[in-house]
Design brief:
- The protein is of the alpha/beta class.
- The protein folds into two domains: 6-92, no CATH class; 106-282, Dna Topoisomerase Vi A Subunit, Chain: A, domain 2, CATH 3.40.1360.
- Helix content is 36%, strand content 16%.
- It is built from eleven helices and twelve strands.
- The strands form three sheets. Strands 7-4-10-9-11-12 form a six-stranded mixed beta sheet. Strands 1-3-2 form a three-stranded antiparallel beta sheet.
- Strand 5 (114-118) and strand 6 form a beta hairpin.
- The radius of gyration is 27 Å and the shape is elongated.
């Protein structure tokens, strides 16, 4: 069965409510079929308005040919940002009416217990070593105010976060994974909705800085900052990769950067002509 587009479904609702609609706004094959069936009426050929003749027949047509059991619910479902397959089936007897993201949300990790609430209930983030926790209802996930959210760019660093706790002695961190990629937008929406500060933990190269500025700083403004080790000059000089520098181009405008530590990092990257993978920090602490 073919799906009726949202714009047409909304117009059909207006017809059901007794309104008439200019024919120029009803240029759909389905509308021609409904006119041919005598369900809709178009009085003229030019600049005419389309009217509904038989409400009951329209409802039966939608149910029999498009599996729409409730037109208003169908429209509401197409407009909803967060839907389930049950919503789809209730609206049109079709669980695949709209693509459904089965796993919205993101992975969290911590090497020490982190207090939070989830759907109004106490929730402690402290997964056993070798496992992560997945937060689905992120819209209702609220960490304690003194927690700093640390966004981890690379999967290996996220997996072995306990080996890097020497880097975060001055904060109470909750680690959030940037990957899988389609979860990162949920993460950013969540970060925008909570008051906690955000610390970006990524690669120390031009690409990593671009990710921070373009994906996070731009949307989180002053409550975001980038993690830079105190000994970054030594790390770049000793362990940096020249190929990473040679193959990357900056995707940001340096004149717009106000963070002095970040400007210093960019200066050091150009000075050494090297980039540094954050995975290095797992084993040198």
């Amino acid at each position: 069965m073919s799906k009726i587009p949202l714009a047409l479904a909304e117009k059909l609702l207006l017809l059901l409510a007794g309104e008439s609609i200019p024919a120029s706004k009803m240029n759909y094959t389905i509308v021609k079929d409904l006119i041919a069936e005598g369900i809709l009426y178009k009085p003229g050929k030019i600049k005419s308005n389309i009217q509904l003749i038989d409400q009951q027949q329209l409802l039966l047509y939608l149910q029999n040919f498009h599996a729409i059991t409730d037109l208003k619910l169908y429209v509401d479902t197409l407009k909803k940002e967060d839907i389930s397959r049950a919503d789809n089936t209730a609206a049109s007897t079709d669980s695949k009416l709209r693509n459904v993201r089965t796993f919205k949300g993101f992975l969290v990790n911590s090497y020490a217990p982190v207090s939070a609430t989830l759907n109004g209930e106490t929730f402690v983030v402290h997964p056993q070593e070798g496992s992560f926790q997945f937060v689905y209802d992120f819209e209702n996930f609220v960490p304690a105010n003194d927690i700093t959210i640390v966004g981890v760019e690379n999967a290996e660093n996220f997996r072995h976060i306990a080996k890097q706790k020497y880097l975060f002695k001055d904060i109470k961190p909750l680690f959030v994974s940037r990957y899988p990629q389609n979860q990162s937008q949920d993460m950013i929406k969540w970060l925008q909705s909570i008051p906690n500060n955000y610390l970006h933990f990524g690669d120390f190269d031009l690409a990593g800085i671009g990710i921070y500025l373009n994906e996070y700083k731009q949307k989180l403004s002053n409550k975001s900052s980038i993690f830079i080790p105190d000994n970054i000059d030594h790390l770049l000089s000793t362990y940096g990769n020249k190929k990473r520098y040679d193959h990357q181009k900056a995707t940001f405008e340096i004149s717009l950067i106000e963070e002095q530590e970040l400007l210093q990092l960019i200066k050091l990257i150009h000075q050494h002509k090297k980039g540094l993978d954050q995975e290095l920090l797992i084993n040198i602490g």
